[in-house]
Design brief:
Oligomer: single chain
Strand order of the largest sheet: 6-7-8-9-11-10
Strand content: 15-25%
Number of strands: 13
Shape: elongated
Largest sheet: 6 strands, mixed
Helix content: 40-55%
Radius of gyration: 26 Å
Structural class: alpha/beta
Length: about 400
């Protein structure tokens, strides 16, 4: 039986134990806090080159030929905050910590004027009760995505927020719209820029209660845009229509939706956040994976957007539509859906925009960092214990 002295010599000293604890704490602090700053500090707002050779550095100057300043905007998507039905409690804790730290770091480092979340804020909004929605989901989401009062924060409706088209009820739709001050088509104007937040779940064109409302609101917005741009006739009927139309800035809108516009697949998508090869050639299902072809044509014809930003498929893609409209599909912001989440950084002005993507730390890299650090600390601990054991045996000789 080992004596107390023998046991003492086979353990770390207090100083060595303190070094071990500090080292473990440092690894945790670096992996769960500092690493986000390192990744996000490497991202920069893009340079915006305006018309008439007017150039804007988003953090230094302004366009002297326009009354509007360029705005800095962050776009993210598919956060899928877990509820009470799916996912382990640690999974929920881990994912929400990662997203909260990423968002708070991005906002504090880059100081955007506005943030748009392109749908599927929630994962179980289509199933949860009113009590869970108002007392759990909404409280957690507001804590995670807290921001200063001078930062605008807007959310687009996603299928996981209210359900797929066949599963939507007035109750689920109304509570989400009430929580985030939305309608079927929500118009947000910032410094002369028009953002149209469209509920893409309501674009099935079957005359349902929300689809009929969405189509009517789209027609109203289309009329307002045409009136602003002088595309409505000068006859009395046209003047009367424009008199009652919503007054909007004279700028082409930016269309924000959850579902992408119609495309057959992701076959032509490239980049580090595009779909894996075995998923790229999977044919998309209209009204489930993407908006139907007819609804897509209506949106492009009625709204004439200068840029379309979408989400839903959890992978990144850039699409050039036949009419020249550019569409960016954003990947998921959650590590639960992909190994390398990212968000979009945009500098936007009524006469132009510039985009760049900011990638967050890969989860595989964080895991590797933890494994290597723990192995090194285990080796160090074993070496120190072995050293003390030799010291004890030498004293016994």
């Amino acid at each position: 039986m080992l004596s107390r002295q023998q046991v003492r010599y086979m353990m770390l000293t207090r100083r060595q134990l303190a070094v071990l604890c500090v080292s473990l704490g440092s690894v945790f602090l670096f992996s769960e806090y500092v690493l986000y700053y390192i990744a996000i500090w490497q991202c920069f707002w893009p340079h915006l080159e305006l018309e008439r050779s007017a150039s804007i550095e988003p953090q230094k100057g302004r366009d002297i030929s326009s009354p509007h300043q360029p705005i800095r905007v962050l776009f993210l998507a598919d956060t899928h905050l877990l509820g009470s039905r799916q996912g382990h409690w640690f999974d929920r804790l881990r994912r929400e910590w990662q997203m909260e730290r990423s968002f708070q770091t991005a906002v504090s480092v880059h100081q955007p004027h506005a943030v748009f979340l392109l749908g599927d804020l929630l994962d179980e909004g289509k199933w949860c009760s009113d009590k869970e929605f108002w007392e759990e989901y909404l409280v957690r989401s507001r804590r995670m995505f807290r921001h200063n009062a001078d930062v605008q924060f807007h959310v687009v409706v996603g299928n996981h927020d209210i359900g797929f088209h066949y599963d939507v009820t007035r109750q689920k739709l109304n509570r989400f719209e009430k929580a985030f001050n939305l309608s079927a088509v929500t118009t947000v104007t910032i410094q002369g820029n028009i953002f149209l937040l469209v509920n893409s779940v309501a674009l099935d064109e079957d005359g349902c209660f929300m689809c009929a409302a969405a189509e009517e609101q789209l027609k109203d917005v289309s009329l307002s845009l045409n009136c602003t741009q002088g595309l409505v006739g000068e006859e009395n009927a046209g003047k009367m229509q424009c008199k009652n139309a919503q007054k909007l800035p004279n700028s082409s809108p930016i269309l924000l939706m959850h579902y992408p516009l119609y495309r057959e697949s992701d076959a032509n998508c490239t980049g580090p956040d595009s779909a894996p090869y075995n998923e790229k050639y999977t044919t998309f299902k209209a009204r489930y994976d993407v908006v139907s072809q007819s609804a897509s044509q209506k949106l492009l014809w009625w709204l004439q957007p200068r840029l379309v930003l979408t989400a839903h498929i959890h992978h990144g893609c850039v699409v050039h539509h036949p009419d020249g409209t550019l569409e960016h599909t954003l990947p998921s912001f959650s590590w639960r859906n992909r190994n390398n989440p990212s968000f979009l950084m945009a500098v936007i002005h009524p006469t132009g925009y510039s985009l760049t993507k900011c990638f967050l730390p890969k989860e595989s890299s964080v895991i590797i960092l933890y494994v290597i650090s723990i192995l090194l600390l285990l080796v160090w601990t074993c070496a120190k214990v072995r050293q003390r054991r030799r010291l004890f045996l030498s004293k016994q000789v």
